[in-house]
Give the backbone structure.
Amino acid sequence: MADKHDTDAAPIIIKKYANRRLYNTEKSSYVTLSHLAGMVRDGSDFVVTDAKSGEDITRSVLTQIIFEEESKGHNMLPTKFLRQVISLYGDSFQGFVPGYLDASMEAFTKNQGAIREKMQGAISGNPAVVGFETLAKQNMEWFDNAMRMFTPTSGSDAGADSAPKAEPVKQDTSDVELGDLKAQLAQMQEQLSKLVDKS
């Protein structure tokens, strides 16, 4: 997606007014959250600022776009994932989560073309989709294991999972756990690369 636009170009400024209206300063026109979602899909870089204070509110607007998409029935974020993310707010490992999610999505995006080919192969009855399904399951298992590492106690959901509970995470082992996380990401990248080579 990023190759559709010059990455060195200044981002488009979107101003949000008190009446919640969004104004595209490049096109001199008002836009909606749906328009902004389309800009994201097209690879357009933009920054949303509060028209009065000039504060950068891009993150909250992007979160609104996700909420709107989810409310339309385009459910992409599993309930379990949302619970795990919420549980990490205020946790000592909160700072590691953004980097992990960025790295995971970066790896996914780099292989998006190959993944789309495998999905199209599924529609046409290509047996290679079996490998893709296996890879997807492995990726979810890796992510689930990583989230368990970040949340050593599972609270009220403790009896719901038959997997053994992780030992309480100690601050002095954070470097080891971060190394494990990087190894899991490297393994995921290797599996995706093998999938590309087979296509």
The longest helix spans residues 174-198. Residues 2-71 form one domain. Confidence is low (pLDDT under 50) at residues 1-6, 154-164. The radius of gyration is 20 Å.
